[in-house]
Prior knowledge:
By secondary structure, this protein is α+β, with helices and mostly antiparallel strands. About 30% of the residues lie in helices and about 25% in strands. It is globular and about 65 Å long.
Amino acid sequence: MRVPVRVFATEKLAAELDDRVFAQAANVATLPGIVGACLCMPDAHWGYGFPIGGVAAIDADTVVISPGGIGFDINCGMRLVRTDLTWSEVQPRVGELVDALVDAVPAGVGSCGLVRLGREEFDDVLREGARWAVRSGYGTQHDLEHTEAHGCFAAADPARVTEHAVKRGIRQIGTLGSGNHYLEIQVVRRENVIAAELAAAFGLDRDEQVVVMFHCGSRGFGHQVATEYLQLFLRAMPGKFGIPVIDRELACAPFSSEEGQAYFAAMCCAANMSFANRQVILHRIREVFATTFGRDAESLGIRTVYDVAHNTAKLERHTVDGAPRLLLVHRKGATRAFPPGHPELPAEYQATGQPVIIGGSMETGSYLLAGLPSGAASFYSSAHGSGRTMSRAQASSRRRSRQTTAPATAIAARASCAPSIACCKSRTSYDSRGDSRRRAGHPRRARPRGRPRGARLGRRAARDARFRLDGLSPLPADAGRGHGYRGPGVRLLEARHALGLRRLPGRAWNLMASGRAPPRAEQAWPECSLA
């Protein structure tokens, strides 16, 4: 190991992490040029090469780039959208809204969007990202200003992607995809708002306010880009570059090499396709709300709070050992969390820090936070989601949506197959209950009310599998080993600055500021420590 491994987690969550997370993090710490530490976010779980929730910053002078450190769904990201509507206005029409959203935003493996492009225009998408969408009438300048990197990674070069990748992606603009991707109507409750001024700066300023959150990425296009360059790097590493790696899933190439630059340009193309995809989805959401409520989107107050990416590699300047350095920061299943005053933030967020969007599991709340200067300890990186207690296959076998029983609150859900409802329950709940909830309160939290989900069937099948659920009950205690960072009984520790994020409650973030690594981590990798 060239650097230590640092895990941001409570003792309980760290003890429950899959052993493979520690093994993968230790392997990442052997990459050439890595600086500081290999970081694991609280929602870390086993992935391809890097653990999902892994962060590695590599020096630009000796830098390598690794597709395993970015992921297959390049720029899988989150967008939060606020409205002026309240739950009392939306509740009578939530089923109608969900049905209309499913029709407007196709979901499922291989699903095709409603935007039809030729090859030349698709190249424009790959070069311009969300800027193409806005230029084509699918959004506003405000959307761009509230999107990471203004919705465009400038190093994109469509000449670096293959025809096969183009064929997989050209029909997928405006689609959710499958797996854990979702589009959710949420409700913000005043009792869950602790830092009201900060929430108001993000446009969340009323009780029972309805917001929309969605999660999706670059679809088959990004997957094809990652697959092709992984194969290229595996062929080039032994002979051409002479780079030994401990795990072939960490295949990499020098960033300055022809292969490294080609992958970086293709990765930026996939990131731009994803930005455009989410922008078109927002356009469809606006159309659905406008049609349903008989008012235009502007009068409904539908505006982007923020769009943030995970699964990227970006050149950024960070201070390491007291000196500024240019680093290539790999964030896989992790998102950036820039502090107040950062030049990449829009003017209205200069005083607040970057909005950080943390999606919850289906029956629990999601969270909105903001970056802090102390985030330098994690290269201004954050967890991106609720983690996973089990695989989607395990969730499907343990609980089917038709067998789900109801708590008090109803959720209207529509998916392309029954297992996809069960699959969403494989993610760890964020909702802190009992003592931890009373001690720390909650950040600005939105409760789910209606959710079209991605799944593994096409759009036609989605129309044939409609479910009206009276809610979802919690998984039994033995259903899996949770390792997201908000679960029942998790004791919050005083560590609000451990990851450099500002919790809207203003007290404790569910991370460890100091502590002892789990025994197995100490025995296997002495340099692993909890942050």
